[in-house]
């Protein structure tokens, strides 16, 4: 027991080394530990300012310790004011530094925005100019297409008028000597009908071959051939049908 008491005193001295007034409060939660508390009070009172509290309500432990002056009075107000002043000073310095950096940044951004606006206006002017040029080119293309359509229509009309004359002009070169024509028609759909006579079938075949090789005619065919007797002579009557290109 003596060794235990010395160890306890040594432990308390080391824990209370920095305190000028060394006080120990013994608090018991149950009446069964009262004898232990009295024993501790007798052994520790020679070294420490020792008191024994027989109140067993632990929720009131804080007020009990404060009443016994075991818990020292600490003044945090002065220390807090010092901290607040230092914090305010640092905050003000940070704010001023931020503002000093913010103003040049705002000035740079304002210049950048104005420069971008000028570029946008310049691009809009360029786009408007190119749009006018595109509209002019489109109008020229439309006028050219209209003129081309007019010329094509005029050429079609001239072709429809001139083609029969061209065909009639070339037809004399295709008719064999043994053939002669009695009827020639050209319809609105460019369909041609050729009727005539031939002294023999070879003349009809030669005439068909010549017409099939002519570049201004397509789909030429022999629609019919009849043998007739004229003046005691057999003669082939034929009918050909085709289309002008």
Automatic annotation (TrEMBL):
The keyword Transmembrane applies. The keyword Coiled coil applies. Keywords: Coiled coil, Membrane, Transmembrane, Transmembrane helix. It comes from the Bacteria. It holds the Pfam family PilN. Residues 113-140 form a coiled coil. The chain crosses the membrane at residues 87-109. PANTHER family: DNA UTILIZATION PROTEIN HOFN (PTHR40278). This is Fimbrial assembly protein. The lineage of its organism: Bacteria, Pseudomonadati, Dictyoglomota, Dictyoglomia, Dictyoglomales.
């Amino acid at each position: 027991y003596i060794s235990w008491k010395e160890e306890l005193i040594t432990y308390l001295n080391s824990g209370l080394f920095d305190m000028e007034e060394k006080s120990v409060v013994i608090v018991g939660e149950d009446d069964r530990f009262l004898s232990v508390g009295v024993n501790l009070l007798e052994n520790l009172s020679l070294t420490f300012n020792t008191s024994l509290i027989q109140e067993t309500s632990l929720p009131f432990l804080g007020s009990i310790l404060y009443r016994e002056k075991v818990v020292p009075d600490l003044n945090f107000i002065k220390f807090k004011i010092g901290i607040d002043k230092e914090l305010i000073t640092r905050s003000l310095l940070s704010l001023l530094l931020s503002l000093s950096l913010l103003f040049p940044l705002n000035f740079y951004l304002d210049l950048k925005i104005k420069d971008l606006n000028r570029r946008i206006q310049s691009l809009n002017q360029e786009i408007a100019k190119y749009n006018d040029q595109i509209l002019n080119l489109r109008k020229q293309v439309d006028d050219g297409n209209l003129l081309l359509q007019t010329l094509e229509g005029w050429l079609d009309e001239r072709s429809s008028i001139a083609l029969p004359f061209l065909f009639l002009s070339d037809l004399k070169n295709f008719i064999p000597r043994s053939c002669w024509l009695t009827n020639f028609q050209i319809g609105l759909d460019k369909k041609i009908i050729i009727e005539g006579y031939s002294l023999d079938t070879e003349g009809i075949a030669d005439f068909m071959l010549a017409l099939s090789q002519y570049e201004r005619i397509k789909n030429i065919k022999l629609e019919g051939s009849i043998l007739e007797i004229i003046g005691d002579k057999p003669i082939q009557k034929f009918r050909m049908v085709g289309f002008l290109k």
